[in-house]
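Running log. JK asked me to keep both predictions on one page so they can be read side by side. First protein, sequence followed by its tokens:
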Amino acid sequence: MSKFTRFLVILLAVIALTPIARAEEDQPINIKSAVVETKDSRVVGTVKICNSERERVRFVLDVKNLTINTIYKRSLSVASGDCANVKLRFNKDFGEMSNVGDEIRFVAKAVRGLGLYDVYDFSNTYTTKVVKGKEDTAGCADHEGDDGIFSACENDFIYHEPSGLRIKVMASNPEFVDLKLIHIEWGGVKDLRIYKGRTKKIRSNYDELERVEITNVYGEKSSDLYLKIESAS
């Protein structure tokens, strides 16, 4: 076998084994609509996804809360020429720390057909905002402000403006309070338990590193919950 013939055989083999990428405008998966709403102290969602291709197409639905930089992914597929209404039960951190007004972005990635070589472009990008649902069971009221003392109930959010911390009250009793915080120094969501009269120090990374002290202070009644939040030097 000549060198040229051997080169041709190798080249044809490489071409045969390489997935065929479709043109950029080839987007069989189309996200038609989406709703994300509060329910039972967390957020849930529904999304309508259509497939215009003549085969079942599978993909990874990428949902990102742009406000708190939290991602949820789910593997799905839609039959040929069909539309699917998918209910989304977000993971714990995404579901519990998202709130009304947050901006949510949907896009289908890793889009492939059932055939070995059927590779498609990403879907369109669909963006919406979290709305208050009819079955919402949030706490007393969300709070936003500078340093000070905040009265809060379970499932309330506290937005500390100087640091950018978003704090959610998960549970409380006369002995301690359980909190979840986002926009902390190392990213992600932090669980924090503070006993009555005790103080915890946190560093936020929302804009620039900011030290914050959170104190579980006593109320007039043992069941009252007051959190003192102060910027620290």
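And the second, directly underneath as requested:
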Amino acid sequence: MRQVAGRQHMPDELSDMLGDLGYDWVPIPDPYSHLAVKTVQQDDEYRMLFEHSAGGQVRIDVRIRQKDGFTHLHFYEPASQTLSESSMVLLRELQQRVALEFGAANVSY
């Protein structure tokens, strides 16, 4: 992410944005405490997982580099190598929102 005005804490920003799009966070195991948590800090990254609330059709693995906020979103259907038409619609909605939130110049696919 390059110099995007108004960004505070990327895990919170992404949680809010994905929540608005209908995604719920999925607890992931903390490698140190072994408790289920929302955000894990590991290898100089924040890691999170989200699932679309309408039946868990798609998931988004989130990796955020701590030093500069560079963020990677891995959008996929569990147990599938491709995306269905309805998942493609959700992906396009996500892409539009990410470009709106962070600026098209700061987003690549």
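Observation for JK regarding the second prediction: The chain has two helices and seven strands.
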